Amino acid sequence: MKVIGVIVILVAAASAAPQQGRDAQILRFENENIGIDGYKFSYETSDPITRQETGELTNAGSENEAIIVKGEYSYVGPDGKTHSVSFVADENGYRPSAKTARK
Questions:
Q1: Rounded Cα distance, 84 and 99, in Å
Q2: If DSSP codes are grouped into helix, strand and coil, which group holds residue 22?
Q3: How far apart are CA 37 and CA 52, in angstroms?
Q4: Residues in CB range of 14: below 8 A, 6 or more apart
Q5: In degrees, to the nearest 5, what angle opens at C-alpha 85 toward C-alphas 81 and 88?
Q6: What is the pLDDT of residues 48-102, one digit of tens each?
Q7: Would you say 49 and 75 are in contact if contact means Cβ atoms under 8 Å apart?
Q8: pLDDT at residue 34 in the model
Q9: Interacting residues of 56 by C-beta distance below 8 A, sequence separation 6+
């Protein structure tokens, strides 16, 4: 059940990221599904948005089984500044850390 909760939180966080231009091109995309042990992906778009994320199953088969997700994304906001968010999501919840770079 915890796994479903973490996935719901991640989907909500991803959809909350600002959506830039609809005509953006994908410049780079990497995706690796490691099976039930985890995954990792990253991408970069022309508008420019970047994202990378890894997920790893811990304590498999036990009562404390959980997925640990780590990642970060960045985008240029309407203010022209680059906004970056790093995060960890695990059995302790979603913990983001944000920073904004000056123009």
A1: 5
A2: coil
A3: 18
A4: none
A5: 175
A6: 899 999 999 998 889 988 899 999 999 999 999 999 999 999 989 999 999 988 7
A7: yes
A8: 80
A9: 37, 38, 67, 68, 69
Q: Give the start-end residues of each E strand in 1-103.
A: 26-33, 38-45, 49-58, 66-76, 82-90, 93-101
Q: For residues 60 and 68, is the Cβ–Cβ distance under 8 A?
A: no
Residue 40 CA to residue 5 CA, distance in Å, equals: 19
Residue 47 and residue 22: Cα distance in Å, rounded? Answer: 9
Which pLDDT does position 5 carry in this prediction? 56
Q: Which two tokens stand for residue 101?
A: 């770079």
In 61-85, which positions are buried (b, 16+ CB within 10 angstroms) versus exposed (e)?
Answer: eeeeebbbbebebbbbeeeeebbeb
Q: What is the pTM of this model?
A: 0.69
Q: Which two tokens stand for residue 61?
A: 């088969």
Structure tokens at 78: 């309407």
Does 15 score more than 80 pLDDT?
no
Look at the block and give the residue holding tokens 């994304």. 73
